[in-house]
Structures are given as C-alpha cells and as structure tokens.
Amino acid sequence: MEEDYKIPTHVGIILDGNGRWAKEKGLIRSAGHKAGYEALRKLVRYINDKGVKVLSVYAFSTENFKRSEEEVSYLMNLFLKVFKKDLAEFNDNNVKVLFSGRKEPLADDVWEAMQEMEKTTENNTGLILNICLNYGGQAEIVDATKKIVDKVLNGEISKEEINEELFRQNLYKDLPPMDLMIRTSGEVRISNFMLYEIAYAEMYFPKTYFPDFDEKEFDIAIDVYNKRDRRFGGIKNK
C-alpha cells in the first residue's frame, strides 16, 4: 500500500436499496432488509480491520415511521432480534456501539436493547459503530440547540462560548467530523443524514444496492476517496 494512501477516520453510509434489491429478485421487502443487515455485519468486521475509527450508518430515519405498519413492525422486530443476537459478536470484536436518534416513538424493548448494547460495549477500543436509528439530521441540530440553551440558562456556559466545536460536542454523540459519506443504490441525495457532521465530507454514490455492497465495493469507495483533492474552505488538505 502506498504511503500516502489514506484511510478515512469517519465513514458514513446511507444503507439504501434493500427494498429494490428484493423486488428485482422477486422477494418481499423484508427479505431485502434482512439481507442488508447481513451485509452490514460482514462490512463492520472488514471496516474495523481496515483501521476506520468511526462508522455511522443510517439504519432508520424519523421519516421511516411513515412507511407501512407492516414494514415498520418488521424492521423494529429485526432490530430487536439482531441487537440481542449480535451483541456478543460486536463485543468480541472490540466494536463500540453507539446509537444516535430520538427515543420517542421507539418501543421500550427496542430502546432497552439499544441501551444494553451501548453499556456492554462502552469500554471497547476498536471501531465505533454509530447506528442512526429514529434519526434525522435536522432533529439532531434542533435537539443540540435545546441542550446548549439549557446549559446557558443553567449558567454552565456563557453565550460567548458557543462556537462550531461546542455545537458539535452537543450533538447526539461527540464524534469527529465525517470524512467520507457513501449512499448506496445510485440515489444522489443526503436525505437528512448527519447534516452538521458532513460539512466537508467527500461523497460517493455507487449504484450498488446495499445488500451487494461488500468488502470489494468498500475498497473501491476508499480508492475513490484517495483520488479526491480534499479542500477545506479552499485550502488543500495536506
């Protein structure tokens, strides 16, 4: 590997195309979601080995609750099942699991499983897997603003101390800025994903549906990232 070959610190993936993957194979949408999670499990292990520090995945948005009751119910049951089943695997692989998003209207058993994953893996030092569930980028900015206002009113900080870094620290999770944002399936949209964090992220939109986004596809994304001339306000990243 070339000396200047860079592995991004923080990668974000919008897990898109599960439903279309299933439809093209003559399967029901739930089969696509199941296949998508299996792809994610394999990818997490690979990305951990590659040296990425943070992986944020868009698993379920606040707007996804508008989908059919049947699909939402299936996804919530899938989350509950895999969070319990794969907790030991994440822990054994030194993966630290975090969740970003709002609690309401998640069911108590789903929320409790999420809290258990965070608690059990909190001391792990490998990849940070940030699962965005019941998440919206605009909601995150609103909630961070409320948190900061409360701190000002309580005298914890002054208004003059508020800056971009302090705001970032009051988002759902205090994570480094995103370096590379990937949206699978060929859709070229951000869809309200980590709006504050992606300010200077490179973006990559492969046509591959997420269930087929494997280790080889991830390596292609990293190759594309390395060919980009990253600039921050016009200044080339050295």
Number of strand segments: 8
Contiguous runs where pLDDT drops below 50 for at least 5 residues: none
What proportion of the residues form beta strands (DSSP E)? Answer: 15-25%
Tell me the Rg in angstroms.
18 Å
- Quickly give the structural class: alpha/beta
The gross shape turns out to be globular
| Spatial strand sequence of the major β-sheet | 3-4-2-1-5-6
Order of helices and strands: EHHEHHEHEHHEEHEE
Mean pLDDT: 94
Tally of helical segments: 8
Please bin the fraction of helical residues. Answer: 40-55%
Q: What is the oligomer described by this structure?
A: single chain
Largest sheet, strands/sense/barrel: 6 strands, parallel
Distance between the termini: 19 Å
Could you please describe the fold and organization of this structure?
A hairpin with a 2-residue loop joins strand 7 and strand 8 (235-236). The protein is globular. The chain has eight helices and eight strands; from the N terminus they run E-H-H-E-H-H-E-H-E-H-H-E-E-H-E-E. It has helices at residues 18-24, 29-50, 69-85, 87-92, 108-121, 137-153, 164-169, 215-227; strands at residues 10-14, 54-61, 96-100, 128-135, 180-183, 202-204, 231-232, 235-236. The model has no long low-confidence stretch (mean pLDDT 94).
